[in-house]
């Protein structure tokens, strides 16, 4: 069934927010004939300059797992990232199913019967099947070898520090330690000197070397042909030769879902029908014609919220988002999307976000300014929301200009100078500020930070908030009441405003909306009669009375808790 027959436009809801310069997050909820579908979409610039598309490995190695949010937090001091879960992985030791290549170094071999995603030096994505061929040679003939993959049956692999601290335990194996040994790049002949031999696995991997591990019929050959002192040669070749074509970074995934702007129904890749046919949570990545990167995390397995998509429906959804070349990634409970360590979607596992092997992240190395913690500060003397905390982060040595600009264009705070990598905080107004909050201009304020790093790369980011003293001194009485008696919110308006009262549960579910009312300055009240819109008395429990006011100076709201008892 085509997507046009499945989705019923327009979307039920669609909200977009800017995460960092040039990168947006949109959450869409759409009705389909099978139930609602929630799509989480990240869109960012073509990789290059301040932006890179990176593979982040849990713990920095091929073994072990971690949550996407944890992996993002781990790299936060050196970059700001938005990303999704990556390739399928082995549940036992966590190693990825397919390729991991970074700066032309092969860390994990490709799965030749599934698509891999390559990233060129110009920021272009290539989705194709690639294969790795290699050999090692000591005192004897050339023999096949792969990289960081435990041999099964008869085989040999070269293990580097990208795998972890030690080689896997493997009964009957023979290990040859090479130190030093160069990075596992393709094309050229790599040479290392044998320093030791061992058996049975668990051999420490030198940081500047590697360990050859052979099993089955290859084990005695490795032992005989690589005595200590021998020079061993290794050569690796990718087909097609991505590094020669300028593709130095890659990650695994599959199947291909968009090719030349068209959805792919059957890619013929090594996936079971049970992996691609059901409506499940789905993750995908692709590129638009203009070079923009698009990441999609579709929530699923949550009836009433999101039922998920089939793999082909994911392909159709990505085409509708403008993707011309794209691949699926690991799906199901692994599907996750996060920004700077904060989860954006709703994973389907009962325990929440699943630990996975890798994050595919759009990494930004310019100045980052998080949203101010308060959307509105209210200088009216009631002690609520009267001080703002503003921050920014630089990840390289940078010359920084930071300005807080009021609605008239005047600066309430400014800084110009050098900053080392780190996060910087400004509390405004400070206790000793000469610019008193009571004298602050009402309206929209801008927090603007510009930076030039030690590579002469310029970046800028701006956030805004409101200063509005209209609403204050909010109280709710009685704080504990029987539903039939209701409650009253009392508040003071400094300026005329449109006011709305909302009764919500402590978890945020809307119970009753009151208003809007156009009210003048002065002490005002809004009463809730303790009933739902249907007229039924509210159930006992914890509630919040939220008073929201808006006028030319912006929005402002204050919430107060209360309880309803029997």
What are the defining features of this structure?
6% helix, eight-stranded mixed β-sheet, 41 strands, elongated, 566 residues, 47% strand, disordered N terminus, eight-stranded antiparallel β-sheet, mainly beta
Structure, described:
With about 575 residues, the chain is mainly beta. It contains five helices and 41 strands. A hairpin with a 4-residue loop joins strand 21 (about 280-290) and strand 22. The radius of gyration is 29 Å and the shape is elongated. The two termini are about 50 Å apart. Residues about 1-10 have low confidence and may be disordered.
In summary, what is this structure?
The chain is mainly beta and 566 residues long.
Enumerate the strands of the largest sheet in spatial order, edge to edge or round the barrel.
1-2-3-22-21-23-19-20
Q: Share of helix among residues?
A: under 10%
The biggest beta sheet is recorded as:
8 strands, antiparallel
Compute the CA-based radius of gyration: 29 Å
- Per DSSP E runs of 2 or more residues, the count of β-strands stands at 41
* Secondary-structure content class: mainly beta
Stretches where pLDDT falls below 50 for ≥5 residues? 1-11
Number of helices: 5
Q: Ends: how far apart? A: 52 Å
Estimated share of beta-strand residues: over 45%
Q: Provide mean pLDDT, rounded.
A: 94
Shape: elongated
């Amino acid at each position: 069934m085509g997507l046009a027959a499945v989705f019923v436009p327009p979307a039920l809801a669609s909200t977009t927010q800017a995460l960092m310069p040039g990168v947006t997050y949109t959450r869409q909820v759409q009705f389909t004939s099978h139930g609602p579908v929630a799509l989480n979409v990240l869109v960012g610039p073509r990789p290059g300059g301040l932006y890179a598309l990176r593979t982040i490995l849990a713990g920095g190695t091929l073994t072990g797992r971690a949550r996407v949010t944890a992996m993002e937090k781990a790299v936060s001091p050196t970059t700001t990232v938005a990303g999704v879960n990556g390739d399928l992985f082995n549940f036992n030791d966590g190693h990825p199913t397919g390729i991991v290549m970074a700066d032309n170094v092969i860390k994990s071999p490709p799965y030749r019967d599934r698509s891999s995603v390559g990233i060129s030096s110009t920021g272009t994505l290539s989705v194709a099947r690639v294969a790795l061929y290699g050999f090692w040679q000591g005192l004897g003939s050339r023999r096949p070898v792969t990289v960081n993959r435990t041999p099964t049956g008869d085989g040999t692999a070269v293990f580097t520090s990208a795998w972890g601290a030690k080689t896997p335990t493997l009964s009957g194996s023979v290990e040859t330690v090479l130190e030093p040994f160069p990075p596992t790049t393709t094309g050229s002949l790599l040479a290392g000197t044998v320093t030791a031999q061992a058996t049975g696995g668990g051999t420490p991997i030198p940081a500047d070397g590697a360990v050859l591990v052979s099993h089955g019929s290859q084990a005695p050959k490795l032992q005989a042909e690589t005595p200590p002192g021998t020079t061993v040669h290794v050569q690796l070749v990718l087909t097609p030769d991505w590094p020669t074509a300028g593709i130095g970074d890659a990650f695994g995934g599959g199947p291909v879902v968009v090719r030349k702007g068209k959805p792919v129904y059957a890619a013929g890749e090594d996936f079971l029908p049970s992996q691609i046919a059901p409506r499940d949570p789905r993750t995908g990545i692709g590129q638009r014609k203009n070079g923009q990167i698009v990441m999609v995390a579709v929530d699923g397995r949550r009836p009433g919220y999101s039922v998920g998509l089939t793999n082909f429906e994911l392909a159709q959804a990505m085409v509708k988002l403008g993707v011309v070349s794209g691949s699926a990634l690991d799906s199901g409970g692994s599907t996750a999307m996060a920004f700077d360590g904060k989860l954006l979607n709703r994973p389907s596992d009962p325990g929440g976000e699943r630990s996975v092997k890798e994050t595919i992240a759009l990494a930004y190395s310019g100045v980052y300014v998080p949203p101010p913690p308060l959307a509105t500060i209210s200088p009216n003397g009631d002690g609520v929301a009267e001080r703002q905390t503003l921050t920014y982060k630089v990840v390289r040595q940078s010359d920084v200009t930071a300005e807080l600009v009021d609605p008239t264009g005047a600066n309430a705070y400014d800084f110009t100078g050098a900053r080392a990598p780190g996060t910087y905080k400004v509390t405004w107004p400070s206790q000793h500020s000469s610019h008193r909050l009571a004298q602050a201009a009402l309206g929209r304020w801008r927090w603007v930070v510009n930076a030039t790093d030690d590579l002469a790369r310029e970046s800028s980011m701006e956030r805004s908030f409101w200063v509005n003293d209209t609403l204050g001194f909010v109280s709710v009485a009685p704080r504990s009441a029987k539903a039939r008696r209701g409650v009253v919110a009392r508040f003071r308006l400094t300026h005329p405003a449109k006011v709305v009262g909302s009764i919500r549960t402590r978890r945020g579910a809307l119970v009753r909306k009151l208003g809007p009312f156009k009210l003048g300055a002065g002490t005002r009240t809004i009463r809730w009669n303790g009933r739902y819109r249907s007229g039924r008395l509210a159930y006992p429990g914890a509630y919040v009375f939220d008073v929201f006011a808006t006028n030319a100076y912006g929005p402002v709201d204050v919430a107060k808790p209360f309880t309803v008892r029997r």
